[in-house]
TrEMBL record:
<keyword id="KW-1133">Transmembrane helix</keyword>
<dbReference type="GO" id="GO:0022904">
    <property type="term" value="P:respiratory electron transport chain"/>
</dbReference>
<keyword id="KW-0408">Iron</keyword>
<dbReference type="GO" id="GO:0015990">
    <property type="term" value="P:electron transport coupled proton transport"/>
</dbReference>
<feature type="transmembrane region" description="Helical">
    <location>
        <begin position="6"/>
        <end position="28"/>
    </location>
</feature>
<dbReference type="GO" id="GO:0004129">
    <property type="term" value="F:cytochrome-c oxidase activity"/>
</dbReference>
<dbReference type="GO" id="GO:0009060">
    <property type="term" value="P:aerobic respiration"/>
</dbReference>
<feature type="transmembrane region" description="Helical">
    <location>
        <begin position="136"/>
        <end position="162"/>
    </location>
</feature>
<feature type="transmembrane region" description="Helical">
    <location>
        <begin position="339"/>
        <end position="361"/>
    </location>
</feature>
<protein>
    <submittedName>
        <fullName>Cytochrome-c oxidase</fullName>
    </submittedName>
</protein>
<keyword id="KW-0472">Membrane</keyword>
<comment type="similarity">
    <text>Belongs to the heme-copper respiratory oxidase family.</text>
</comment>
<keyword id="KW-0479">Metal-binding</keyword>
<feature type="transmembrane region" description="Helical">
    <location>
        <begin position="425"/>
        <end position="447"/>
    </location>
</feature>
<feature type="transmembrane region" description="Helical">
    <location>
        <begin position="96"/>
        <end position="115"/>
    </location>
</feature>
<dbReference type="InterPro" id="IPR000883">
    <property type="entry name" value="Cyt_C_Oxase_1"/>
</dbReference>
<feature type="transmembrane region" description="Helical">
    <location>
        <begin position="305"/>
        <end position="327"/>
    </location>
</feature>
Length: 521
């Protein structure tokens, strides 16, 4: 139950709503020069659909009593999650969990439509596609991913709910989408029909592998913006960064089968998924190369924002390299469902994504509240989190190589893997340190909201459109409708040096005057 709820809450109620939801809603209108989202009512609905989803996930943990919450993992594989009597944890609680999953999907689909429409139709005059910051590109590509992938998971969620209601309420829809014929549960009569439990894996991972990039791509774009500002340099290879994000998203749709190498897949099909998965390393390597190129020889500002961005790049490299191992079918057959998988997943979604969130919170905090967070406290938070994170998750690679399965509550029963106990204890201590370090972030955040140092519109010397708006932005975001005259990363150029600074806002007209290319309205 704890493993299931940990993954469900962190993925569906934290990372996706914070990155694609909170940062997306705040930054998209500001960075493209719009006064609001394209569909404010739809935006409101996408927000309010999250609250019943939170209720359903929370209630599912207690719906069946102390020992009967959803306990089939965040992947919720049939038949364990399909037939209500197949497992003591698959009664009413699992149905509530599925309701929560479906509501999150509906919320995200509404948000994705809004994001795409806003970015395409509401850019400020002069804001062409290749003048958009990489944050906006990443949100745009993420919205496309959500729009194409989420309907599949949402439909699968309804199908599994219908299967379950058939067993819970005899008069309801009689469906057997994932129930195989002849299945005997608790000495009952064999099931009829001919559903396929493996179909759920295909539908689930067709969404849930792109979901990894839905959680990662916004952080990639934000880190690109912040690194350029903190290194006082243009992003190295702006267009290759855009194309590589698009390539990552496109390849993300055709690799879902690498989660199913142990399912009895045809070897030829497995080879196809293996090859396409390894190809994702190419655009990912382009991004890493470009981030390092941006940092190289820059006038680096060694504050907590830069440190978190640098950690994002470093930890993404570790997570990406371990992913190459698991892309190979023969290696994955050994590593599958061991702690090596847990290590890889957390290096990508905690080590990379959350360090990008930590940097983004501090970087855009002055725009949100007109005050700055205390940088010294954030540096302490960074050091403790970085040490605790690596102490928690890096040993998991070694545990996985040793063969320790994931999701085991007591792997030491009868002496099994008892020799790995010291490493597990070290990981536990590291996790406790990492967990308590987050109170520094929370305290700094709420204290700085009221008592942080007051700052003007552009305390970082950045050049995006959002920094020409008041801090915090009022109704309509901008007091003067912005016009975009230049690209998003004009740092340390001859024109800015002539003005006695190392940046030029996108709203600054060139001295000789050039024709402004109006965006489509």
């Amino acid at each position: 139950m704890l493993f299931t709820m940990h993954a469900s809450v962190m993925i569906f109620l934290v990372i996706i709503p914070v990155l694609a939801g909170a940062f997306g809603n705040f930054l998209i209108p500001l960075q493209i020069g719009a006064d609001d989202m394209a569909f404010p009512v739809l935006n409101m609905l996408s927000y309010w659909f999250m609250w019943p989803a939170i209720f359903c996930f929370g209630y599912s943990f207690i719906a069946g009593g102390a020992t009967a919450g959803p306990a089939n993992g965040w992947t919720s594989y049939p038949v364990l999650s399909d037939i209500a009597s197949a497992s003591p944890s698959s009664g009413e609680a699992q149905t509530w969990w599925l309701f929560g999953l479906t509501l999150v999907g509906v919320s995200s689909m509404m948000g994705s439509v809004n994001y795409m429409t806003t970015i395409i139709n509401m850019r400020a005059p002069g804001m062409t596609l290749f003048r958009m910051p990489l944050t906006i590109w990443s949100m745009f590509i993420t919205a496309i991913l959500q729009a194409f992938a989420l309907p599949v998971l949402t439909a699968a969620g309804f199908m599994l709910v219908f299967d379950r209601l058939h067993t819970l309420i005899p008069t309801s829809i009689h469906s057997v989408f994932f129930v195989p014929a002849g299945l005997v549960v608790n000495n009952a009569a064999p099931t009829v029909g001919g559903g396929q439990p493996l179909l759920w894996q295909h539908l689930f991972w067709f969404y849930s592998h792109p979901a990894v990039y839905i959680m990662l791509l916004p952080a990639m774009g934000m880190v690109s913006d912040m690194l350029a500002c903190m290194c006082r340099k243009p992003v190295f290879g702006y267009k290759p960064m855009v194309y590589s994000m698009a390539a990552i998203a496109g390849l993300g749709f055709i690799v879902w089968g690498h989660h199913m190498f142990t399912s009895g897949m045809n070897p030829a099909l497995g080879m196809t998924f293996m090859t396409s998965t390894m190809m994702i390393a190419l655009p990912s390597a382009i991004k890493v190369f470009n981030w390092i190129g941006t940092i190289w020889d820059g006038n680096i500002q060694f504050n907590a924002v830069f440190l978190n961005c640098a950690a994002f790049v470093a930890l993404f490299i570790v997570g990406g390299l371990s992913g190459i191992f698991m892309a190979a079918v023969p290696v994955d057959i050994y590593f599958h469902d061991t702690y090596f998988i847990v290590a890889h997943f957390h290096y990508v979604l905690f080590g990379a994504t959350l360090f990008g969130v930590f940097a983004g919170v501090q970087f855009w905090f002055p725009k949100m509240f007109g005050r700055q967070m205390h940088d010294g406290v954030q540096k302490v938070h960074f050091v403790l989190t970085f040490i605790g994170m690596n102490g928690t998750f890096f040993p998991m690679h070694l545990l996985g190589i040793a063969g320790m399965p994931r999701r085991y509550a007591d792997p030491y029963l009868h002496g099994y893997l008892e020799h790995l106990l010291p490493m597990n204890q070290f990981m536990t201590i590291s996790a406790i340190v990492m967990g308590f370090a987050q109170f520094l972030l929370l305290g700094n955040f709420f204290f700085s909201m009221f008592y942080g140092k007051k700052v003007g519109r552009n305390p970082w010397g950045a050049n995006g459109l959002e920094w020409s708006a008041p801090s915090p932005p009022g109704h309509g975001n901008f007091d003067v409708p912005p016009v975009c005259y230049r690209g998003p990363y004009e740092y340390s150029g001859p024109e800015s040096e002539a003005l006695g600074q190392d940046f030029i806002l996108q709203t600054t007209a060139p001295p000789t005057g050039v024709k402004v290319v109006a965006a489509h309205h």
